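Ops channel
N.P.: pipeline sanity check, posting one input/output pair.
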């Protein structure tokens, strides 16, 4: 796997390689391995459980995917910490943030929009991010200061600045999403809901979506994608317009050219909901 941008040079503020293990190569290979496992079980889940409500699902496959990722991290980076969707929240200066399946509802129902997300954070700063979409085989990744890539090819956000030419995406939050779609309906070309925040945001980085709006989501959903979008030339803020971080809960990802215009719409809807 080639390192961005050339020659495998790593950012000076963190160590890309530890005990002979290259973090980027490790993360990409691990997510592709887990992606293959998920494809073997895609749409074939026998047991489905609920968490916070009947819409919030978890399966044994989510748990097994997380187990594979967590055990691999602990084996290769034993002194580092993990935050993961299914019940792991460790603290430390060096943290891996894991979403074993982002889009579990899609996964359970045999729909293609689900992904795996892995980010590495040092002292609150996201320095490495990987998002893998198993069904399409797309692997998005970025290292801070070295650009964003998809399957070895450099990616960039779109250059569209007229909202009427833009295609955006949104998450699904009660009382907010419907109003947002209605407000944007006559202003943008299309709005799509994929059901995977990590993939939706990564598609902003690849120029496929021009923006993505997500209200009340967790750090494991978008930590990797935040870096991917920024390294591809995009912008990521909270709903107040401040730079988003792993402690933020609501996000606007964009190509930066339309950011303020979409943000003003989002602010109005958010205040009403």
């Amino acid at each position: 796997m080639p390192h961005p941008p050339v020659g495998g040079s790593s950012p000076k503020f963190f160590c890309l390689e530890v005990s002979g293990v290259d973090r980027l190569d490790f993360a990409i290979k691990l997510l592709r391995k887990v992606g293959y496992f998920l494809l073997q079980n895609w749409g074939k889940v026998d047991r489905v459980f609920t968490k916070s409500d009947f819409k919030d699902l978890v399966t044994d496959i989510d748990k097994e995917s997380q187990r594979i990722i967590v055990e691999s991290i602990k084996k290769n980076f034993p002194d580092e910490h993990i935050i993961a969707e299914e019940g792991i929240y460790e603290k430390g200066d060096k943290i891996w943030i894991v979403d074993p399946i982002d889009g579990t509802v899609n996964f359970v129902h045999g729909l293609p929009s689900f992904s795996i997300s892995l980010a590495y954070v040092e002292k609150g700063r996201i320095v490495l991010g990987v998002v893998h979409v198993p069904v399409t085989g797309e692997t998005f990744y970025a290292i801070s200061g070295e650009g964003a890539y998809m399957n070895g090819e450099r990616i960039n956000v779109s250059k569209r600045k007229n909202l009427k030419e833009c295609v955006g995406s949104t998450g699904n939050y009660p009382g907010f999403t419907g109003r947002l779609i209605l407000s944007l309906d006559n202003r943008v070309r299309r709005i799509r809901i994929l059901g995977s925040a990590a993939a939706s945001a990564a598609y902003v980085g690849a120029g496929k979506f021009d923006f993505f709006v997500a209200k009340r989501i967790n750090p494991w959903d978008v930590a990797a994608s935040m870096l991917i979008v920024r390294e591809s030339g995009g912008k990521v803020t909270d709903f107040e317009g401040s730079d988003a971080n792993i402690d933020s809960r609501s996000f606007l990802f964009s190509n930066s050219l339309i950011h303020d215009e979409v943000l003003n719409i989002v602010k109005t809807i958010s205040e009403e909901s």
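N.P.: looks fine end to end. The first strand starts at residue 17 and ends at 18.
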